[in-house]
Write a structure and sequence with these properties.
The complex is a heterodimer of chains A (593) and B (162).
Chain A: E1 5-9, E2 12-16, H1 22-28, E3 52-55, E4 62-63, E5 74-76, H2 80-95, H3 111-118, E6 142-144, H4 154-162, E7 168-171, E8 178-181, H5 197-201, E9 207-209, H6 213-220, E10 226-231, H7 233-236, H8 252-262, E11 266-269, H9 270-289, E12 297-298, H10 303-312, H11 326-341, E13 349-355, H12 359-364, E14 379-382, H13 383-392, H14 414-417, H15 424-438, E15 456-463, E16 466-474, H16 476-488, E17 495-499, H17 523-538, H18 549-559, H19 565-571
Parallel strand pairs in A: 1-5, 10-11, 10-13, 12-17, 13-14, 16-17
Antiparallel strand pairs in A: 1-2, 3-4, 3-5, 6-9, 7-8, 15-16
Chain B: H1 2-20, H2 29-40, H3 45-55, H4 59-68, E1 80-85, H5 88-92, H6 95-106, E2 119-124, E3 136-138, E4 141-143, H7 148-161
Parallel strand pairs in B: 1-2
Antiparallel strand pairs in B: 1-3, 3-4
Helix pairs in contact in B: 1-2, 2-3, 6-7
The chains are: A alpha/beta (593), B alpha+beta (162).
């Protein structure tokens, strides 16, 4: 600590570490400088100028997100002139922004609104020309509304730097600048993987999910259909945040009860079909290591990753497991096995998936996932949408009497639970594959090496003297780095898990927006959501998928055995190369026009 | 036609291959786009896709650069390019009326190309021929001392040439 430097902030001296920006130093000292385009996970853009501060001796204000501290520097963060300058900047942004807060998707959850409020903007001083663009509603997952865009560039940066999809860029210039895919392609025709991370980081409503809540409310009131819901693991680990709870609360049975009150006749658990996925995937893996099929085998649960695969890595399609995602497996079981059991026409069943994910909306529409000519999943709503519906219907989620999931697709093992966190699918698969292969039960089932937020995690399991090397990547950018290794050295790993979103499904594009004291994709928040799932796993008596009695029953009564002809027909699929071809540059390319 | 297309594609391909041998291939993007435009007259999405694949640069980034600079045309240009000077001298001498007459005659706006592909209309900022104001340049040829009627007559003459 010998090389600390001295700076003054607002007249008081502090010792700080060199090599950081004024904003970073100020954050650690408890001075919160307002900011808009800055995000700690992304490169510094310095575009919005909201974080300006006064540095003694400098002619102009400097952007504190980009300017480094130096010895003897005297910084002021809150002078009258600065406050006025920042307010002018926000007012100028507002001048080119629709005046429709009360009907906006991000009302009360908008960073621009919060900034305007914190700066005391009570009336509009500037009136001028306002941009007018059509919304892009082509995608089943992500809606793009350039009218709401304030050009902070966070979406462009997360899409290129974190996800390495490079779908978005700034096009045109000056007043006419718009964030858009190449050639102004509709999102549905672009390389967009529908991951929804642009929605997570957008400070306004320039990116939002395709909202189907009104349509779902209508269908829930239709007495002629049987309403069936399934809920992804990560929804229960995050829904509390939308109701003001701190991250990390697991509201499994409260959420189930709320869904019943909303009008669902049956509420099933996607964790059940996660167990089913493990049965199929572990069996497929064992076949592959015995020579039937290409290695390494790569997981196929994440819909954003599947679209990424088809566009960016068509050469690796054969490496990807043929297993459908847990959502689509559940949909298939609802429209066959379950319809048979309740002796109803599957065409009368409305199959709704409640997901932490925007890409699942896209997946649900993939024609190859249809079952007997019907959609396996009729509708997908995100955690945000279902939280809004619960509030809108006047259901008190926090004080509701808890209820259990319904039979026969509601019971799950702890292995199904941890699917929601990065590394969870691999850990769950190891628990079952080990036993299927060796005939012995794996006792030490918590695989610490595969947990946590490191970009690429590696581990080893020894099964009957055979060393199985595994790797896990979360976020498509990390996946891209891992797959580059695989392309060069295909024998390095046997089994790979890839999740499209940072942190895995807990960081999905459909999760609640960051609250007042948080930032989007805050690592601490992601860790707490994951921990909520690991706790649920620890508290379960059944922690291995093959020990789930309802899984054993569905194989006995309906599917036969893993990889049977019925299982292949209903639980497996295949992928095809798709255009437009995705490009992943070797060096990071600045996306600013 | 096919052969000229192949020759152009080959020339662009060769140019990009040379750029790829440099230490920072992606820094040659603007030069490559200039080359593509000089070969094809404009930057089509297909050509930008070709650049994207050959240089391993995402199409969204190329699109950002191509739309940022006015010099790049994203639509095919007409056989003749009309540049109407709107510099100060031409402007005070009635360039705007001349421009309006041309727009009216061709039924296109600034930056657009006529349906028959004959003319593209652009504006220019001082062609250095202020003594002849108002001035219009068609391809490489300067027409000075114009009135709306004279301008329209010139366009009609170009049409007849065809």
């Amino acid at each position: 600590m010998g090389n600390m430097i001295k700076i003054h902030i607002n007249g008081k001296p502090y010792r700080v570490e060199p090599g950081q920006t004024i904003m970073q130093a100020a954050d650690k000292l408890g001075f919160h400088i307002p900011r808009l385009c800055y995000h700690p996970k992304l490169s510094i853009e310095g575009a919005c100028r909201v974080c300006i501060v006064e540095v003694e001796g400098m002619r102009n204000y400097v952007a504190s997100c980009a300017y480094p501290v130096s010895d003897g520097m005297k910084v002021r963060t809150n002078t009258k002139e600065l406050r006025q300058a920042r307010r002018d900047i926000i007012e100028l942004i507002l001048d080119n922004h629709p005046l429709d807060c009360h009907t906006c998707d991000r009302d009360s959850n908008c960073e621009l609104q919060r900034l305007a409020s914190s700066m005391g903007i009570k009336k509009r001083h500037f009136e001028g020309e306002r941009k007018q663009y059509d919304m892009d509603i082509s995608s089943p997952s992500v809606i793009r509304d350039p009218n709401k865009c304030i050009l902070c560039g966070r979406c462009v940066r997360i899409c290129s730097e974190v996800q390495k999809v490079y779908n978005l860029g700034h096009a045109y210039r000056g007043f006419k600048t718009v964030v858009m895919p190449a050639y102004n392609m509709p999102m549905a025709e672009s390389v967009c993987t529908a991951c929804g991370q642009c929605i997570n980081v957008c400070p306004t409503a320039a990116f939002v999910e395709k909202n189907v809540t009104q349509e779902l409310f209508t269908k829930l009131n239709d007495p002629s259909v049987i309403k069936v819901a399934q809920v992804a693991p990560s929804v229960r680990a995050a829904i509390g945040e939308a109701f003001g709870l701190a991250p990390g609360a697991a509201l499994e049975q409260e959420m189930t009860a709320a869904l019943k009150r909303l009008g669902f006749d049956y509420v099933f658990d996607t964790q059940f079909s996660a167990d089913l996925t493990i049965m199929e995937e572990a069996s497929e893996f064992l076949e592959r290591i015995q020579g039937k099929g290409r290695l390494p085998m790569i997981t196929s649960c994440s819909s954003a990753w599947m679209k990424c695969l088809e566009q960016f890595y068509p050469d690796l399609i054969e490496n990807v497991s043929t297993c459908k995602s847990p959502m689509s497996m559940m949909g298939a079981m609802v429209k066959t096995y379950f319809a048979d059991r309740i002796k109803k026409d599957p065409a009368k069943i409305l199959s709704v998936a409640v997901m932490c994910c925007t890409a699942k909306k896209y997946e649900a529409q993939r024609p190859e996932l249809m079952v007997n000519g019907m959609n396996a999943t009729d509708m997908v709503v995100t955690t945000r949408e279902i939280a809004w519906m619960i509030k809108s219907a006047g259901i008190d989620l926090l004080h509701i009497k808890p209820e259990r999931f319904d039979e026969p697709l509601g019971l799950s093992s702890g292995a199904g639970t941890i699917f929601g966190a990065t590394g969870g699918v691999m850990e769950a698969a190891i628990r079952t594959a080990y036993e299927l292969y060796t005939g012995e039960t794996l006792l030490d089932i918590e695989v610490e090496d595969l947990r946590g937020l490191k970009g690429i995690k590696e581990g080893k399991v020894v099964m009957d003297n055979k060393e199985i090397r595994v790797a896990v990547a979360h976020g498509l950018g990390n996946a891209c780095d891992l797959l580059d290794i695989v392309r060069k050295d295909p024998a390095r790993y046997h089994f790979i898990e890839i999740m499209g979103c940072p942190g895995g499904c807990v960081g999905g594009g459909g999760q609640p927006y960051a609250g007042i004291n948080s930032i989007p994709l805050d690592e601490d928040c992601l860790k707490k959501r994951a921990e909520a799932l690991y706790n649920l796993d620890r508290n379960k008596t059944i922690r291995r998928s093959h020990e789930n009695p309802d899984i054993q029953r569905i194989y006995k009564e309906f599917l036969g055995r893993p990889l049977s002809a019925t299982a292949h027909k209903l639980l497996h699929t295949h992928y095809k190369a798709k255009g437009p071809r995705g490009i992943t540059p070797q060096v990071a390319i600045g996306m600013k026009g | 036609m096919e052969t000229t297309k192949d020759i152009r594609a080959a020339e662009l391909g060769e140019f990009m291959a040379r750029c790829r041998t440099s230490p920072r291939p992606e820094s040659h993007l603007i030069a490559i786009l200039h080359k593509a435009q000089s070969l094809y007259g404009y930057l089509s999405n297909a050509v930008m896709d070709e650049v994207s694949e050959a240089m391993n640069i995402p199409a969204a980034h190329i699109w950002g650069v191509a739309t940022f600079y006015h010099y790049f045309n994203l639509k095919p240009k007409g056989k003749h390019t009309i540049a109407v000077c709107l510099g100060t001298a031409c402007y005070v001498k009635g360039a705007e009326e001349v421009l309006e007459a041309i727009k009216e005659e061709l039924k296109i706006g600034m930056g657009e190309t006529t349906q028959d592909g004959l003319f593209t209309l652009q504006e220019a900022r001082c062609l250095g021929a202020c003594g002849l104001a108002p001035v219009v340049m068609i391809d490489e040829k300067i027409y000075g001392g114009l009135t709306p009627k004279k301008a329209v007559d010139i366009l009609k003459a170009y049409r007849k040439q065809r």
